[in-house]
Amino acid sequence: MTASNNENVKFSDMKIMGNGSSAGGTFNLVKIMGDAEINGSITCNAFKCMGNTQVRGMVSTGGFNCTGEIQITEGMRSESAKLNGNLRVLGELSAKLITINGELSVGQRMTAEKVKVNGTLSVAADCQCEDMTIRGSLEVDGMLNVEHLQLKMHGSSKAREVGGSKLHVSRGFSVPILNKLITSMEGTFQAGSIEGDELYLEYTIAKIVRGRHVTLGPGCEIGLVEYAEEFKYDPSASVSQVNQIIV
Amino acid sequence: MNEDELISKKELLEWTGISYGQLYRWKRKNLIPEDWFIRKSSYTGQETFFPREKILQRIDRIKNMKDGLSLDELADVFSPSSDDISLGAQKLVERNIVTQTTLHLYEEVQGSQETLAFSDMVCLFVLEKLLQSGEMTQGEGKMLIHLLKEHEEHFASRPCEVVLFRKMGVTSFVLAESMEHIYFDKGVKWVVRMSVTACIEELKMSLNEREE
After folding, report:
1. pTM: predicted TM-score of the whole model, two decimal places
2. InterPro entries, per this entry (chain B) (predicted)?
3. ipTM
């Protein structure tokens, strides 16, 4: 293991191969292959990891690229974050571009510009971003504020509140016969309220849906729909109350 | 807060003609502060309300300005934090942002500086507005400068208000984050109350305008 840290403008690299630990600090490149424990916050230009890492502190980096399992006990800030595996951030997460194959869980607020997830995203507080594409499941225990949401569900998803402009929720492809047998289990989206300009919802259970153009696909159970211009629904969708709002 | 001081989200959209997409986009860009979203339970579950005056005024201004500026530039105008704007003291006078009298008074207390940081400009601007209101004397102005200089990090990060009050001819200032629940004894007279945050917005607006 080599770990060095100096106060010069040009920071050195930190590489951990095999088993190792570090106290954190400021680096140019951090590269971990194997098992590492970092007992402190890390600031670096690039963070790469293959294996298992636990950071007891905060991570702020230019690029984050990991395969394996990482836990960060405080927040994380990065320009871009790429992950194959499992990332747990117990604090806030902010990044411009997030690409996940696997699982990401955030303990506090999450802010991003573009998010692409194959797998699971769960955020324990508010989540905001411009563009979000998810194939898998989504769980936001707060307000999800997103300009453009594309959610293809495999498994169940939920959010307390969703607001945005273009929201598209549908079921991902799966085995057709199995689907019929256990319909209630297979992918529904539960939300308190969903508000946006153009909404397409499938298999969604929500108390309130409000929008300009609202389209309900199969399997929706909505308490109240308020729409401004257009409302279409699948015969299998159940809606208790519909109001048109004149703007 | 009173019921009629609040406006529901639905009413707001009907009233202003903006869409959900716009409202949420502006929220993401911090054009509308988080704490203006007030959640209350109603018969349909939770409803979101806003402080009526503030939100209507804010949306009006966003709509008027958004053609000239990008959303990020707009967010800058509304954020109370001090950016890396600095200007020569005389420039402010030339641009009619502050008067020579105000600047003299400020320099008497702080000494003359060649360039002013943004927080200094805010201080000058608040001073100018209060002097012009005719409610504050120059001597009291000096007190104000001391107060603002001492606590400049507070109004840079949070919405603040400054209040001038007198009792039996003795003047005091208060710089507060919230004046909602403050009660004084009988002899105290509120003379002026001014939002530092609003002053910052106004100052940024006038700085932006003249630059073009």
Report:
1. 0.67
2. DUF4004 (IPR025063)
3. 0.75
